[in-house]
Amino acid sequence: MIDQEQPITNSEDAPIEEEQKTIPIVPDTEQQTEQNQEISQALPNRPYLNTEPEPEENNNPAVQKKLPFQDFKERWNAISDDQASKLYIRQFDVISEQNETIYSTPLNVDHQLRITVKNGNINQLEMLTPNTPSSSTVFSMLGGWSQIMNILHPEIQLYHIDDFFNQIGVGPNADIKNVKNTTITYDRITYTITLTNPGYRFTAAFSN
Which of 9, 180, 187, 207 is 20 to 30 Å from 56 at the Cα level? Predict the structure, then answer.
């Protein structure tokens, strides 16, 4: 219990100490990941998931920093190696060159990646799965969605992605029957999941 009676001191005699709260970063273990998956389904409030974009913070330049297109292929393929996803970028095809450049590349026979670039920075990432995912294809599709989040949020934790998937309707064992057309904002990046009948489109766009 906090003592309501505080001693009166002169501000010149006693320095004012500001309490600082830090959250320790603990590496995920396999057991902790399973616990996080269970906890994420019971969380009533998720402050890092917002349905509306937050106002820009002009005093924080890191918030407004966009992802440069230069070396994107190498970074994407490095994440593919880490996740053993086999969703590699081989080469890009330019499909539009007007106010912004749109690059397209097949990740495999089931998925395609489109990248919208303006002034050397990525404005939007889009993964298309044009056909109804099979039981095996659905895992690579969700792996690609996860990979997009990993490249846009380098510090993101696995349980954040699990919680994000839970919010958009992905169930255990990659069950996507409850996934619907959804728009959700995470860390000032707007994610849109669109059912294209028969496939899916997963879009990540930097908020203006």
Answer: 180
Residues forming a β-bridge with 186: 49, 189
Contact predicate 53/74, CB 8 Å:
no
Tokens 């990979």 found at: 147
To the nearest 10°, report the CA torsion of 151, 153, 157, 159: -90
Q: Rounded to whole angstroms, how far apart are CA atoms 5 and 168?
A: 50
Residue 199: how many other CB atoms lie within 10 Å? 17
d(CA 123, CA 153): 14
Q: What is the mean pLDDT of the chain?
A: 78
Query: And the tokens for 183?
Result: 């728009």
Q: What is the pTM of this model?
A: 0.70
How many whole angstroms separate alpha carbon 117 and alpha carbon 103?
8
Residue 208 banded pLDDT, cuts 50, 70, 90:
low
Which residues lie across from 101 on neighbouring strands? 97, 117
Structure tokens at 132: 């109804």
